[in-house]
Amino acid sequence: MYEYFLTVFNPSGEIAFEERFEAESDEAAKKKGEALLSEKNYLEHTHRLTRSGKLLLFHR
């Protein structure tokens, strides 16, 4: 299992939402991250998903 960090930003650059979770792979983490974004209505906000400094998902 790997540790992932999902961060969502407001237009002003402040953090609107932050979540740490574990997943078995980067692909599984992307799916879980996108599900969290959808659930919280943050899909269109600026967001990023990282693992150990590696950027896996980014939307601006």
From TrEMBL:
It comes from Halalkalibacter alkalisediminis. InterPro entries: YhzD. This is YhzD family protein.
